[in-house]
Amino acid sequence: MKTRFLIILLILFMVPTMSEAQCAMCRAVVESESDGKTAEAINNGIVYLMAVPYVLVAGLFYFIYRKMRG
Fold first, then answer.
1. Does the global pTM surpass 0.70?
2. Distance between CA 11 and CA 20 in Å, rounded?
3. N-to-C CA span, the chain
4. Residue 21's pLDDT is what?
5. Which of 16, 26, 30, 64 has its CA 20 to 30 A from that of 46?
6. pLDDT tens readout for residues 12-51
7. Strands (DSSP E) along 1-70, which ranges?
8. pLDDT for res 29
9. Number of Cβ atoms within 10 Å of the Cβ of 65
10. What is the DSSP letter of 7?
């Protein structure tokens, strides 16, 4: 059990390192555009991807709150 937990923890710590490789590609695309529309689209995509988990968790807590209150 302890070994499995350590393996999962190690994998979770390695995921951000592996995903950093994509940042150079995004930066190259944004820097190659002159009008800035691509940069705006990437920023909007980041905001949407960041907001969805918060909305889901807030909905879950609201559902639990309603169940506990009534």
1. no
2. 15
3. 39
4. 54
5. 64
6. 777 665 555 556 677 777 778 778 888 888 888 888 888 9
7. none
8. 75
9. 10
10. H
Q: Which of 30, 58, 55 is nearest to 42 (CA)?
A: 30
Tokens matching residue 49: 């991807």
> Apex CA 35: angle with CA 24 and CA 25, to 5°?
10
60 vs 47, 52, 66, 70, CA distance in Å? 20, 12, 10, 16
29's CB contacts (< 8 A; 6+ apart) are 38, 42
List the one residue out of 61, 41, 60, 38 whose CA is nearest residue 49.
41
The residue assigned the tokens 């969805």 is 52
- Residue matched to tokens 């309603």: 66
